[in-house]
Amino acid sequence: MSKYISEYIDFLKIEKRQSKNTLLSYRRDVNRFAKYLSNKQLDEVKKNDVRSFLVFLRNVECLASSSVARCLSSLKSFYSFLYIENLILENPTETIASPSPYRKLPNVISVEDVDALIAAPDIKTLAGVRDLAMIELIYATGLRVSELISLKVSEVDLEVGFLRTLGKGSKERVIPIGDIAKTAIEGYVNNARPLFQKKRKTEDLFLTRNGNAMSRQGFWKIIKKYSIKAKIAGTVSPHALRHAFATHLLDRGADLRSVQKMLGHADISSTQIYTHVLSERMSGIYKRFHPRA
Fold this sequence. Notes:
Elements: H1 2-14, H2 20-37, H3 47-59, H4 65-84, H5 111-119, H6 126-141, H7 145-150, E1 156-157, E2 162-166, E3 172-176, H8 179-197, H9 216-229, H10 238-251, H11 256-263, H12 268-289
Antiparallel strand pairs: 1-2, 2-3
Helix pairs in contact: 1-2, 2-4, 3-4, 5-6, 6-8, 6-10, 10-12, 11-12
């Protein structure tokens, strides 16, 4: 089956132009299924094999419902490809309904905690200037961490106050940058980045001490370090700042459609989860302060 998996991944990469992270996820899910099937041939796979695999993921591997749903989605895409290419006569995933996974409410850090996190970098150091610019930018724009570390210098227009980024599905979107974030990025670009860059020719905006592009893991460690320094309770991640961006905007009256566009959500239902966060917050305030609650 490995031959067909490779052809499928090539199809996603070339024809569908899926991102590197998406390709890795699809390959991992389909390989996991192939390993579960052991030596079973491609045309021998039946609907019950798929169902038993999903049960295995849930009960034996103890995956969350959302992860099981994602695996099924990967398999549906894989078998649709095989069927269209006439490599199989029957699609075993066709009539299997995708579960509606429980959507966990995002962990949203407060404005006060964001302020404490932003105050943590030592801007007397080159690393502190860079770290402040990254934190300010991700909170100002709601970028995914993969989008943040992939930014090129040419994609950020500080004069106009906008940036361009390629999100999921290689869809480009334009997001405004606030004045405070602009100032932080200007300080980094003018004073710190040239020293990180050294003699290397690179378009990557955020660089490490070695002049390489910042990695996901590297930025994760930066956030963790400063959250400890700021004494913020609980886990703070780059994605938590994306959640904070959306929630704090909605909390101050932004409309859902605008937030959806800035986050790069294809479906507004993905953005609507933040309204549940606000509802829970309002409910807590009501119970705390209303005399008859």
